[in-house]
Design a protein that fits this description.
Length: about 325
């Protein structure tokens, strides 16, 4: 694994182009990520995943955002339409035990679904805690407005994925819930005090700090670093993510092609690495942008390599389960919402 570079890349379509195969083979991204543009039909998805791994000559981790609700990359008719985190949170408000069970079950079903295609990482749970008036970019992707509920549901979701041999990625550390802008399009700036952030935004991540992977957010917290968003801020990453939260796992940037970040893609990748992220994520599959990212990416080494190896060692450890029974149980819980 020492040759793998500290990056996760996407691709442009339903199958890899010759240029993509050449780039991946020569540059050795540590992992890959799939989006809706990469989804055609079941055999094609499995073939694409296999093609990605073949291009780097190893079983590279393959990521996807399969949350449920409006963020679900593989949709009907290939896979069932799953409810949003907000709807699961509504079950929790009625009955905590059933809410936790619903979160666990949905993740366990995601694991059944994704494993069939060879996908082994789901960017879930969303641990962001919204506030009234915040951007809808999180919105119904959040379980609740209460950090304790978010932590409880998030833990259940993470455990459900792991029970099915799929690893979770907590997002968006240290918290996107207060963002008043959509970081896909512009840079949100949060003016809350450090005390407010510690009371409301950080607790779910502290509760799940022992998970193996987390994704950053492109948000400026003026109380911590008024100059740089969390993704590129050494102060936020060292003082808050590694320090206050105590997360020691693999830290992955949110998508470097999002417009919250400034500069060329090469400059963004360099800033992400300089800030202390272990892995640069680039999602849109545009070749010109990927070439800029790979030019700035370095082979995994040191603590980042140790963290990546811990992830690899934990992949694919599914426990046997009765899929039909779990699907029936999950369906029975949904009338509560």
């Amino acid at each position: 694994m020492t040759d793998a570079k500290a990056m996760i890349l996407g691709c442009s379509g339903l199958t890899l182009t010759a240029d993509e195969i050449s780039l991946y083979r020569n540059e050795q991204p540590w992992g890959f990520i799939l989006f809706g543009r990469n989804i055609g039909e079941p055999a094609q998805i499995a073939d694409l995943v296999a093609q990605m791994r073949d291009s780097v000559g190893r079983r590279a981790p393959v990521f996807i955002d399969q949350e449920g609700g409006r963020v679900q990359r593989i949709r009907p008719p290939i896979l069932d339409k799953y409810p949003s985190a907000q709807l699961l949170g509504a079950i929790y408000r009625e009955d905590r035990e059933k809410g936790r069970r619903a979160a666990w079950l949905m993740s366990r079903l995601h694991a059944f679904d994704l494993s069939r295609f060879g996908i082994d990482v789901d960017c879930l749970p969303v641990l962001d805690v919204p506030v009234e008036g915040s951007s809808n970019v999180i919105g119904d992707r959040a379980y609740a407005f209460d950090p304790a509920v978010v932590a409880d549901m998030g833990r259940a979701a993470a455990e459900g994925l792991k029970a099915g041999g799929v690893l979770p990625v907590m997002k968006h550390m240290p918290g996107h819930g207060r963002g008043m802008a959509d970081s896909h399009h512009e840079l949100p700036v949060v003016h809350a005090s450090r005390a407010e952030l510690e009371a409301h935004d950080f607790p779910p991540f502290i509760a799940l700090k022992d998970e193996l992977m987390a994704m950053t957010c492109h948000i400026v917290y003026t109380a911590i670093d008024p100059e740089r968003p969390a993704t590129t801020s050494r102060k936020v990453i060292e003082e808050i993510i590694r320090g206050h939260i105590g997360f020691e796992g693999l830290l992955i940037s949110d998508d470097s092609s999002m417009n919250a970040l400034k500069g060329t893609l090469g400059e963004r990748a360099a800033n992400i690495a300089a800030g202390g992220c272990d892995i640069v994520l680039h999602c849109n599959g545009l070749m010109d942008e990927m070439k800029q990212v790979v030019a700035e990416a370095y082979p995994l080494a040191g603590r980042a390599l140790q963290r990546a190896r811990a992830v690899e060692a934990a992949l694919g450890k599914a426990k046997a389960a009765d899929e039909a029974a779990l699907r029936a149980e999950f369906a029975a819980l949904l009338p509560m919402v």
